[in-house]
Write a structure and sequence with these properties.
Length: about 200
C-alpha cells in the first residue's frame, strides 16, 4: 500500500514574469501579426504543427532553441532563434508572444509551459504526459495529441479571445502552483515526513 507523491520543481518567478520587451521590434514582426512562440531543446518537436500554422499569414511563428541542422529544413517565414543561455531573454520571448504552443508528444511535466504561464502568456498544448496538468481552462487549451486541425482551432480561439483575457490567470496559476521556493519547501516537508515514518 504505497502512496505516490508528485512535486514539481517549480520555476524562478523573479525571472519568469511579464516583461515589457522590444522583441517584436527586434524581429521586425508587423504589429498586425500574432506571435506564436515555440521553445525546443532537442530535435524539433512540433515541426509539422509549426509549419502548418506558418501558412496563416496573420501569424508569425518564432521558435527559440532550434539547432542549426534544422533551420535549413523549415520555411523561411518562421523566425528561428538559436539556443539562448539567458533566462531573462527567454522570459522576454514568452512575454512578447500572444500564445505559447507546445505540441509535445512525450514531456513528463514541461517546464516551458510553466515559464510561459509565469510570463502571462496562455498555452496551447497536446494531451500528453503531464502537459495537461500544467494549465486549466483560464490559462490555455489542451488538444488531443496529433490533432493538428483542433490545434489550429485552439490557437485561433486563444488569439481571438486575446492574451489580456488570459494573462492575469496565467501569472496567478504560476504563483500558486509553480513557485520554485515553495516547491523546495514541499521537498523538505516530504523528506521530514518520510523520516518520521521510518
Amino acid at each position: 500500500n504505497h502512496k505516490i507523491i508528485v512535486i514539481n520543481n517549480g520555476i524562478d518567478l523573479s525571472i519568469f514574469k511579464p516583461l515589457k520587451t522590444n522583441i517584436r521590434q527586434k524581429l521586425n514582426i508587423a504589429s498586425n501579426k500574432k506571435m506564436i512562440l515555440g521553445v525546443v531543446s532537442s530535435g524539433f518537436k512540433g515541426k509539422k504543427e509549426f509549419i502548418e500554422l506558418s501558412l496563416n499569414s496573420q501569424y508569425q511563428i518564432v521558435i527559440v532553441g532550434l539547432k542549426s541542422e534544422w533551420i535549413d529544413r523549415i520555411p523561411s517565414n518562421i523566425i528561428c532563434i538559436p539556443h539562448t543561455n539567458s533566462q531573462f531573454e527567454l522570459a522576454e520571448y514568452y512575454s512578447a508572444a500572444d500564445v505559447f504552443l507546445n505540441p509535445t508528444n512525450d514531456d513528463t511535466f514541461p517546464t516551458v509551459n510553466l515559464e510561459s504561464l509565469a510570463c502571462g502568456t496562455p498555452v496551447v498544448t497536446y494531451k500528453s504526459g503531464g502537459s495537461p496538468e500544467t494549465i486549466d481552462v483560464n490559462t490555455g487549451i489542451v488538444v488531443e495529441r496529433g490533432d493538428i486541425e483542433n490545434l489550429k482551432i485552439a490557437v485561433e480561439k486563444v488569439l481571438s479571445q486575446g492574451k489580456d483575457s488570459y494573462s492575469e490567470h496565467c501569472r496567478r496559476r504560476a504563483e500558486i502552483h509553480y513557485n520554485k521556493d515553495e516547491r523546495f519547501n514541499d521537498y523538505i516537508n516530504l523528506y521530514e515526513t518520510l523520516l518520521r515514518t521510518r
